[in-house]
Amino acid sequence: MRISKKTEYAVHSVLYITFFKDRTVLLDELAAQGISREYLAKVMRLLTKSGILKSSVGVNGGYVLARSADEITLEDIFNAVEGDAFYKCESRSRKCGLAGKCGLTEAFNAARGMFLGELRKCKISDMLGKSVSDGSWLKKMNPVV
Question: Among candidates 54, 75, 71, which has minimal Cα distance to 7?
C-alpha cells in the first residue's frame, strides 16, 4: 500500500503542531521542512476544514490543534485529505462495463474498512510519544522556534 505525499505531509504537520502545542505554528515554519508552501497550504486548508486544526491570520497567525491530540486519529487525517480516494467504483457513473458483475467493489470496501479501522486505533498523542523518544525527528525537521 502506498500513502500519498499529501497524507504524509498532513500527518507530519499535525505531529509538529502537536509537539509545539503551547504556541501557534506558522505555515512558513512547516514549509521550511522542504515542502512547497502552496501545496502545504492546500493540505492545511483540508485539515482546518475538517476540524483537526484551527487557523488564524495576522501577526500571530498560524495553526493550532482544534481538538486534543487524544481525540485526533490517523483515520481523521486520512479522511480529511484523501476523502473517498481509497477506492471509488466507477460503476455508479456508468463508465464500467462490469457494473454489478464483479466482486471488486465488495473486496475493496472490505479492505478499506480494515485499513481505516487500524488508522482509527492510532491517536496522534500516542504517535507523538513514540516519535519524540529521542527527539531526533524534530532535529531533522529544523524547527523555527
Answer: 75
pLDDT of 145 above 60: no
Pairing state between β 53-56 and 62-65: antiparallel
CA distance 46 to 84: 14
* Per-residue pLDDT tens digits for 24-80: 999 998 998 788 999 999 999 999 999 999 999 887 789 999 999 999 999 999 999
Between CA 133 and CA 144, with CA 138 as vertex, the angle to 5 degrees is: 145
State residue 39's pLDDT score: 94
* DSSP state, residue 100: T
Return the C-alpha cell found at 133: 523518544
Q: Distance between CA 31 and CA 46 in Å, rounded?
A: 16
Does the pTM of the predicted model rise above 0.85? Answer: no
d(CA 46, CA 81): 6
Residue 44: CB atoms within 10 A of its CB come to 25
